[in-house]
Amino acid sequence: MSGGGGGGGGGGDFEERSVGALRVRIDRTLCVGFGDCITEAPEAFVLDESGTAVFVKPDAVERERLLRACDACPVDAITVWNETGTQIVPGACEQVP
Ligand code: SF4
Q1: 26 ligand 1 Cβ < 6 A
Q2: pLDDT above 70 covers what percent of the chain?
Q3: Residue 96: inside a domain
Q4: Is 68 helix (H, G, I), strand (E, B) or coil?
Q5: Residue nearest to atom 3 of ligand 1 (CA)
Q6: Whose CA is nearest to atom 1 of ligand 1?
Q7: Which residue range is the domain that position 75 belongs to?
Q8: Span 58-69, pLDDT tens digits
Q9: The CATH number of the domain where 47 resides is what?
Q10: Which residues pair with 54 in a beta bridge?
C-alpha cells in the first residue's frame, strides 16, 4: 500500500476469471500493455488507466478466439487452465521438450 492508486496487495497483482470451463488469469505485473490480447478479443480485455489489461467480458468471446487472444500475449502475462486443471496457455505454440 503506497497511497498511489494501485490495485490489491503486495507482491503479485492478478486478475482471475472463470470463463465457462476455463480459468483465465492476467498477471498484471507482467503485462506491458501492448494490447495484442485486445486486438484479438476486444470484448474480453481492455487496458485500464495504467495501461494494464483487465477483463471486460471474456465469456462473450468464443473459446477458440479467447485462447488465441491469451496466446497472443508477447510476454505471457495471460495464463489459461482448462477444465481438468491443465495449463493450456502459454504452451501450444512453443513447446519446450
Ligand atoms: S497482450 Fe499481454 S502484455 Fe499485451 S495487453 Fe494483453 S496481457 Fe498485456
Answers
A1: yes
A2: 82
A3: no
A4: helix
A5: 31
A6: 73
A7: 31-88
A8: 999 999 999 999
A9: 3.30.70.20
A10: 46
